[in-house]
């Protein structure tokens, strides 16, 4: 092999051993590749900035030439300093925003610029008005006084109907059933137009049902040390005279517990909640009960009245001399 052949072989071997640029790019890691891209981006931005500056210098030169030519045509004398000052002032004010005078056109422009906000505000106001109308003013408004009154009246009518059904199913007194039907008609007639009257009728109906559910007995107090009966005197300008005969009574539950009752005092007209009160009786009943207790100190005839469930009134169990049951006349709470 000659010398030239050796040189060619060495050069080929060197070219094979040296890495190519493509191999270098392929061997770059991700961080190195990102740094290269950042450098390229910075160089591009610098180039664009330089181009803008060059174009501005070209524009400045053109403006300067035209100003000088215009001054020569008009015969005005201007110095280089004045021309440069005018150009600087032009560039300084070129991108300064000057607000236009307020008018219809500017108003339309502002509305157009803020169209999204204006549309959102208009939509919000529309929704608010619609909700207000539906809530308070529409025929179905849940918070309208009229609608609320109608709904309250409907609920009250429904509750009264339930009470009427309960009374009809439990009643043993035709008069009580008729009274319940009358009160139910009052509730329906009053309705939302007269809520106070409807409420009053409903409360009386509810009270009627409560009274119908009660079951108890009224007994004459019979203890040896207890007053069972007494004569009531009445004193005025004409003197003292007998007002009537009374027996002292109390209400007892089926379990024997003493119950308090609401009693209207015939002498004062006031209603009181008491455990004991006095019932007015005829003279013959008073004398019979008096003699019964005086004979041995114990009153044997104590059952005065019975209140059964399903009835409104108490049934008096004290017979008179004629055999008829005593008619209740008056009650007093103080003696």
Q: How would you sum up this structure, described in words?
A:
With 335 residues, the protein is of the alpha+beta class. The protein has four domains: 47-88; 106-137; 145-213; 216-332, no CATH class. It is built from ten helices and ten strands. The strands form two sheets. Strands 1, 2, 3, 4, 7, 8, 9 and 10 form an eight-stranded antiparallel beta sheet that branches. It has a two-stranded antiparallel ribbon with strand order 5-6. Strand 3 and strand 4 (258-259) form a beta hairpin. It is rod-shaped and about 150 Å long.
Features:
single chain, 335 residues, 4 domains, two-stranded antiparallel ribbon, 10 helices, rod-shaped, membrane, transmembrane
Quick overview of this protein structure:
The chain is α+β, with helices and mostly antiparallel strands and 335 residues long.
List the helices and strands and how they pair.
Blueprint: H1 3-17, H2 21-27, H3 30-74, H4 80-93, H5 104-113, H6 115-137, H7 145-170, H8 174-190, H9 195-213, E1 216-220, E2 229-236, E3 239-252, E4 258-259, E5 261-264, E6 271-274, E7 276-281, H10 283-296, E8 303-307, E9 315-316, E10 331-332
Antiparallel strand pairs: 1-3, 1-8, 2-3, 3-4, 3-7, 5-6, 7-10, 8-9
Helix pairs in contact: 7-8, 7-9, 8-9
Q: Which of globular, elongated, flat, extended, rod-shaped describes the shape? A: rod-shaped
Q: What is the quaternary state of this protein?
A: single chain
What integer is the average pLDDT? Answer: 83
SSE-based structural type: alpha+beta
Q: In angstroms, what separates the terminal alpha carbons?
A: 158 Å
The strand count comes to: 10
Instruction: Evaluate the radius of gyration.
Output: 56 Å
Total number of helical segments?
A: 10
Strand and helix order = HHHHHHHHHEEEEEEEHEEE
Query: Biggest β-sheet, characterized?
Result: 8 strands, antiparallel
Residue share in β-strands: 15-25%
Low-confidence stretches: 1-5
What is the total domain count?
4
Helix share bin: 55-70%
């Amino acid at each position: 092999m000659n010398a030239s052949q050796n040189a060619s072989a060495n050069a080929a071997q060197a070219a094979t051993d040296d890495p190519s640029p493509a191999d270098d790019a392929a061997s770059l890691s991700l961080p190195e590749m990102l740094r290269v891209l950042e450098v390229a981006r910075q160089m591009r931005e610098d180039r664009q900035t330089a181009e803008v500056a060059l174009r501005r210098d070209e524009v400045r030169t053109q403006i300067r030439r035209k100003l000088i030519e215009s001054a020569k045509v008009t015969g005005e004398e201007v110095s280089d300093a004045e021309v440069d000052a005018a150009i600087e002032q032009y560039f300084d004010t070129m991108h300064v925003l000057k607000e236009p005078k307020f008018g219809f056109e500017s108003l339309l422009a502002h509305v157009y610029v803020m169209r999204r906000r204006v549309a959102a505000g208009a939509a919000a106001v529309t929704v608010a008005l619609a909700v207000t109308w539906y809530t308070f003013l529409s025929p179905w408004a849940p918070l309208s006084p009229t609608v609320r009154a109608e709904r309250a009246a409907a609920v009250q009518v429904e509750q009264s109907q339930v009470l009427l059904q309960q009374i009809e199913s439990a009643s043993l007194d035709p008069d009580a059933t008729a009274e319940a039907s009358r009160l139910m008609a009052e509730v329906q007639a009053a309705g939302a137009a007269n809520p106070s009257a409807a409420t009053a009728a409903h409360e009386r109906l509810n009270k009627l049902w409560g009274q119908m559910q009660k079951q108890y007995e009224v007994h004459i107090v019979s203890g040896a040390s207890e007053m069972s009966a007494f004569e009531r005197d009445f004193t005025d300008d004409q003197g003292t005279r007998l007002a009537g005969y009374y027996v002292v009574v109390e209400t007892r539950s089926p379990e024997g517990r003493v119950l308090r009752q609401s009693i209207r005092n015939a002498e004062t007209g006031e209603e009181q909640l008491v455990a004991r009160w006095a019932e007015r009786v005829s003279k013959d009943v008073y004398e019979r009960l008096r003699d019964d207790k005086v004979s041995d100190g114990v009153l044997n005839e104590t059952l005065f009245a019975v209140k059964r469930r399903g009835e409104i009134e108490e049934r008096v169990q004290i017979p008179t001399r004629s055999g008829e049951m005593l008619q209740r006349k008056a009650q007093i709470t103080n003696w």
